[in-house]
Amino acid sequence: MLPKLKILVVEDSDELLEQLSASIRSTIDFFDRPDIEVSVTEAISVTEALRQVREDGEIQAVVFSWDTRVTEVDIGGDSDAQVANNAVVINAIKYIRPELPVYVLGDAVKGLDIVNEAGSMESFFYRNDIISDPESIVGYIINDFDDRNETPFWTAYKEYVLEANDSWHTPGHSGGASFRHSPYISDFYRFFGRNVFVSDLSVSVDSLGSLSDGTYAIGRAQANVASTFEVRHSYFVTNGSSTSNKIILQTLLREGDKVIADRNCHKSVHYGIVQARAMPVYLDSVFNPDYGIFSPPRLTQLREVIEANPNAKLVVLTGCTYDGLLTDLKQVVALAHSRGIKVFIDEAWFAYASFHPHFRPYSAVQAGADYVTHSAHKVVSAFSQASLIHVNDPDFDKDFFKEVYNIHTSTSPKYQLIASLDVCRQQLEMEGYKILNELLANVQELKQQVAKFTRLKILDRQDFARMFDHVEQDNVGHDPLKILIDISALEYSNQEIHRFLMDEVGLEIEKFTHSTILVLLTLGGMRSKIVRLYNALKKLDDGSVSLQRSKNRKPLPTSIPPISLAELPSRAFFSEREAIPWEQSAGRIAAGLVTPYPPGIPLIVPGQRIEHAHINYLQALASQKLTIQGVYDGDIYVMTIK
């Protein structure tokens, strides 16, 4: 399977369109590129061109004749404008796919005026030159395609590994030799295969670059990520977005600094605030007990908290919740920046946000957030623990950031993780739109079919608007690739449902609540998997399964007690501590984090004075056999009373 370079030629004159297409086709073979599949497709109108760009994700270049007549064509998306000139046509193409190069053909005499008017085109060519000598534009297009398709680290990494040099450095298995020659652990080598071991290299390979310093091939790969994501800087992290979050927090915050944080943030944010010795001001959880899910915080409360804390240094929010609810981050960024406050968005579950117009309005990068983290392994194509940090802050302290980065980054990073981030970017750049377009179409079809069910239901934005009264007012969105299924009408226990789905389709559920199951569609989500999921759901819905019936799915408590800090969290966390039974902890100051799953929202944070409401909440969860992190054999840690 070869990479496909499909060139779309747009011209409303049949004669010129035929001439242009024939000229480009005739010169493709001149470049002798057996490693790519080059083809040409045509559009005789702006309407047809926009349709093809929307529907055909394999188009990798647009050759647009500036003299193409433009009529009133709805450009779609979130704009009410009508196409009035060719510049707006180009903007419409870029709205659908910002990464798609557009090459304009026109009258050379008007060339400078066309460049001034066209805006975001890649280059200008004189039309008659292209018809008589098309090599220049085809060479330009192929060169740009190669640049976008480049993988500087992965390419250099493969070349080095294939040289099969003797290993006189770490790691100690020497390309797998210690495994291969062992009667005890050779099965480990056979299971993973040769390439895993010969590609497990040491930082002694200078030519591949340093992760901590961002040099050579690694530096070039990070620069490519920054270009693809349209940010100032991007950095690779090989021990997860938990570490990425802590790096950003420790870069931006000093002891006692106020940080406005969504209580629902991942626990790494809470721990990062402790490490930075900052003072959090928590936004309240907005929780729906019927489904066991939470929404983004209310923007009215965010506004009130910002006004009450004008000296806050940072706002930290989760851009996309576990269940796919999306904050309108443009409002958040505008509000925070108007007060001189930086914005950091944990977008772990939404790394593809910039690569399709359906998601882009909720993208943290597009909204202008100063710092964004992406778990590249969660929903796009990278290995586990591979993460990205993106920086758009004009006041970015790069030197201090690198020091904090080095505190957290191993001096012996896993090169396979770095390579996976390099090719992950390549895929998003070259086919991210195409894959997402297909996934969205498949989900829509699945929803239409499931809508015919009598007991199961896929929840959508209208359902969330009924659960949370601020969805419409705050323009809360939803990612349809997070398929949240209402199972409350089924008479089976979660365990029985889970067992059936594993046995029926080998489906490991991402998350359960007492009334929902969450299924994630990622870039690896194939249509056949969706069909198998539908088949299993259909059997659950019509009752044609032999499962034990149960009424034991109990709802969660109706509300989560608020956080009231009595001490700086870092002082409480690093203080002398003692373990006491959680039932006897009322009135004491917590020294650790206590987080029930689900819903994964911290109930107690370091520095918080524990109240009877927290104990009552834990008691309500105790009978449901939920995982509660921070409780050890019935004890929690509190500050020692001196």
What can you tell me about this protein's structure?
By secondary structure, the protein is of the alpha/beta class. The chain has four domains: about 5-150, Response regulator (Rossmann fold); about 205-430, Aspartate Aminotransferase, domain 2 (3-Layer(aba) Sandwich), CATH 3.40.640; about 430-540, Aspartate Aminotransferase, domain 1, CATH 3.90.1150.10; about 570-640, Ornithine Decarboxylase, Chain A, domain 4. Helices cover about 40% and strands about 15% of the residues. The protein has 23 helices and 24 strands. It has a seven-stranded mixed β-sheet, with helices on both faces. Strands 2-1-3-4-5 form a five-stranded parallel β-sheet, sandwiched between helices. The chain has a four-stranded antiparallel β-sheet with strand order 16-18-20-19. Helix 1 (about 15-30) links the parallel strand 1 (about 5-10) and strand 2 (about 35-45). Helix 12 crosses helix 17 (about 400-410). The protein is globular, with a radius of gyration of 27 Å. The termini are far apart. Residues about 75-85 have low confidence and may be disordered. GO terms for molecular function: transaminase activity. Keywords: Aminotransferase, Decarboxylase, Lyase, Pyridoxal phosphate, Transferase.
Strand order of the largest sheet: 6-15-14-13-11-7-8
Q: What separation lies between the terminal Cα atoms? A: 70 Å
CATH architecture of the largest domain: 3-Layer(aba) Sandwich
- CATH level 1 class label of the largest domain: Alpha Beta
> How large is the count of helical segments?
23
Counted up, domains total 4
For the record, what is the CATH homologous superfamily label of the largest domain?
Answer: Type I PLP-dependent aspartate aminotransferase-like (Major domain)
Residue windows where pLDDT falls under 50 for at least 5 positions: 76-83
| Beta-strand percentage range | 15-25%
Structural class: alpha/beta
Report the C-alpha radius of gyration, rounded: 27 Å
Q: Specify the helix fraction band.
A: 25-40%
> What's the story with the biggest beta sheet?
7 strands, mixed
Mean residue pLDDT: 90
Instruction: Classify the fold: give the CATH topology of the largest domain.
Output: Aspartate Aminotransferase, domain 2
InterPro entries: Orn/Lys/Arg_deCO2ase_major_dom, Orn_Lys_Arg_decarboxylase-I, Prn/Lys/Arg_de-COase_C, Prn/Lys/Arg_de-COase_C_sf, PyrdxlP-dep_Trfase, PyrdxlP-dep_Trfase_major
GO molecular function: transaminase activity
Pfam families: OKR_DC_1 (PF01276), OKR_DC_1_C (PF03711)
Family: Belongs to the Orn/Lys/Arg decarboxylase class-I family.
